[in-house]
What does this fold into?
Amino acid sequence: MPEHRPFPRALVDAKTWRAAIAELEAGHVSLLSLWAEPKSVHMALLEERSVAVLSLPVINTFPSVGARHAPAIRLERAIHDLYGFVPEDADDTRPWLDHGRWSSSQPLSATPALPDASPYTFLDVDGENLHQIPVGPVHAGIIEPGHFRFTASGETVVRLEERLGYVHKGIDGLFAGATLARAASLSSHVSGDSAVAYGIAFSCAVEAALNVSPPPRALYLRALMAELERLANHFGDFGAICNDASFSLMHAHCGILREEILRAASAAFGHRLMMDCVMPGGVADAYPAGITKIEMLVGEIERRFPALVEVYDATASLQDRTVGTGILRPELAKRFAAGGYVGRASARNFDVRRDFAYAPYDQLSFEVPVREAGDVDARVWIRVREIEQSLSLVKQIVAKLPSGPARVEVVATAGEGMAIAEGFRGDVVAWVRLNGDGTIARCHLRDPSWFQWPLLEVVIEGNIVADFPLCNKSFNCSYSGHDL
It folds into this structure.
């Protein structure tokens, strides 16, 4: 087994695998990710600031993680759809990504099967005077597709069940055999609003596998891109949440600031979403005029943003809609290892930039905002405070930006690596295995939305149907990053 950097990976038997499941069930560790390849399944575990990967050889079945630890259920369903492995004693064996329209089922297994067009069965709900409201997958706005099945008693939601997978693109299969350049580009296109976060996670995983260190300038420019991405998305969400509460004025103002951030990113890096700007070994260098534009923009946002925050805080109609709506209890946020603003609004004090202190964040000063209320309002305030912190980080990065090269040459050989990067939604995980010729043998990318989507089902229960758009936008989970 090749060396796995920087975290250990151990080949285990079923007994050890079950012992790890018991640790998850007891809450001693958190599930970082769960994935497969043709002859094995892998489980990454997080314990405070340490990570370990367990690998279990599999022929047909493996002990179910989801049977005792709910956050693993959808990941296991995805594994079965792609590889055909059956989780033993699993509570939910329905397909997840496979909608019966593929040319073959279990396409990444050693022996793909015929397509399975069996109808999908939603969970039963018992009770009197209940009715169902199906929403999607096609929606009224220009958004990605997802189906939401509401069961309601009057206006009160009794259960929400999601069905996703409509934007499955076969990312796992596309990575296999890809060159580093192709794979780096593919990673930045997995979820458009997180192009930088995915690019950093993938590149860091490859660099770990090859024991390569990017130059200091590249690390600072990566952080600059990441904070611009965070700012653009947080402004978009802040405005959109207010818009879903019929306060369109905030949406307009935030939309203007988001647009200015995207234009500054384009001026500095040649692309509004900074796609294909991060690659193993470094980054595409920034244009000096773009850095100047970013400096000017930060000052403009710092001048205009406090007034928007004051308007939000002082508008009673907004507070009436967001305060106490869609509450995520801290114990659930912890159990599901909810990342980003979803977890931090519910007391989960976790941020990869600080807790794993990857460069250059280990040389920058910032705070991680945390709240305990867990409602829509708390998720708004986490975004507000993170905007303030990101503005400070951008100023520090620009002030300390080193000169010199922005990229080193990468000679690809065999190796394994793993990395975690903090995106605007939370922690993005990348795991790669490289072939001897430097092409990708297997790459697994895990979006924070895998552990956030199930929690959205929980927080809407007991709320009115009309509050779902607020809850949904306050989570703003990724469809594309999840469906892969």
The longest strand covers residues 30-37. The CA atoms of residues 413 and 437 lie 6 Å apart. The chain has a mean pLDDT of 96. The radius of gyration is 22 Å.
